[in-house]
Amino acid sequence: MHVNHTSPFNGFAYAAPLLVWLLAWAFMLMAYESISLGNLALLLVLANAVASLWLRPLASVLISSLAVGLFNWSFVPPRFTLKVDLSEDALLLVTTLAVSTVISYLMELKRQAADRASAHQMQVLAAQEHVQSQQLRNTLLTSISHDYRTPLTTVMSSASVIVEQVGRMPPERIGQLAEVILEEAQQLHRMTNNTLQLARLDSKKFDIPMNWESIEEIVGTVGARARRNHPKRHIEILLAESLPLVRCDAVLMNQLLDNLIENSLRHSDEDTPLLIQATHDGAALRLGVQDNGCGISEAWKERVFDIFQRVEVSNVPVDGQTRRGIGVGLAVCRAIAEVHGGHLQIADTPGGGTTVWLSLPISEQPEQPRELSE
To answer: What is the DSSP annotation of 292-314?
Structure first.
């Protein structure tokens, strides 16, 4: 049992013992004629023991002494005096006070031990968080040193060629190199944005501004951006009718869908379509990004959402290029889904490929403003 002892002036710390003593005293008064004096003293010891849960030792001993004196005055012959006729009754009073005192100090020792254990546990948790932070830092630095270096090297080499060959290089070649620079810069932007967003979402102090958003607008914006960035890919959008509004952060939801789409595009052939779909069943809204790529094995369907995890679908990438990224894109997606009360799930696409489903709870819809008649 955990009791708050942070302040000796806590009103509850004195109200609770007083209530215990009042109840015990009322019972002893009612049962005085039918219960022996020794049993009444046991009830007093029990009341003192329960009261010591809230009181510090000194206060507990002082109030227990007052209670024993009042017990002597009320029940020990001769009643309504502080005299004691029988030596057995005097021993009973002394024993009652001694037992109450011992219990008070034992409770204090228990509280101190609990405080030390709690402090030790906090130190252990702090040490574990520090170790995890260092491991995350080391892993992040390792990933950055490898995965950030590749696009940076490509950007620098392409820019160097343009600078060195200025005036002698045909415009078509300059355009090709500029396209390479743009693609690598976009990859760097995505990796940086995902890494920073994951750090923000892991922070306990991060407050997400939730607003009522139209999922049609979010999907339309993300789909248009994907078609613009990948003009050679066929991207289809299929939305159910009468989709409800979703209480979410539109910026985070855009990033989640961007990551899912980019991930599907990287792991599927250029001649295969990509489907973005949305439906609902009254309790949850489901957003799906479906591709016809290589698919993901059962062993990786959960691990793929862990940070710095990159599934190897085959020894040779589909597009003949090295898979890029530091393995935080899907981790960010899961973090965004969780802060919105939703979850992500990976399913196999019929005929081959992967479908990632995002399920979001549907809240009670806001009242629509009435149209003003002229």
So the answer is: -SS---GGGTTGGGSTT------
